[in-house]
């Protein structure tokens, strides 16, 4: 997570949330003892980090798509 910015100088953006999402963030923020703003920013940051990781994996897959591969199945699906 990046260093905190003084609240009055920070970028602001109004977000319309689907029904029930505000309550989910409120519940999460209460459990984690953080503000709703912090919970939302952490969620957005986590989403963007995950998206960047997924894009990097897709690039690696596309670079190797013409090479033979061996599928290794582990865990729950190994016995299916």
Description:
The chain is mainly alpha-helical. The chain has one domain. Helix content is 50%, strand content 0%. The chain is built from two helices and no strands.
SSE blueprint:
Layout: H1 21-32, H2 36-63
Supply Rg.
20 Å
Instruction: Kindly name the structural category.
Output: mainly alpha
Given as residue ranges, the uncertain stretches (5+ residues, pLDDT < 50) are none
- When the domains are counted, the total is 1
Task: Give a brief outline of the structure.
This protein has helices at 21-32, 36-63. By secondary structure, it is mostly helical.
Observed structural traits:
single chain; 80 residues; mainly alpha
């Amino acid at each position: 997570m990046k260093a905190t910015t003084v609240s009055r100088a920070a970028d602001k953006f109004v977000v319309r949330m689907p029904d029930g999402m505000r309550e989910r963030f409120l519940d999460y923020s209460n459990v984690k003892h953080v503000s709703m703003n912090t919970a939302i920013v952490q969620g957005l940051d986590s989403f963007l980090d995950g998206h960047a990781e997924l894009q990097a994996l897709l690039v690696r897959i596309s670079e190797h798509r013409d090479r033979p591969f061996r599928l290794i199945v582990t865990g729950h699906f190994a016995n299916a």
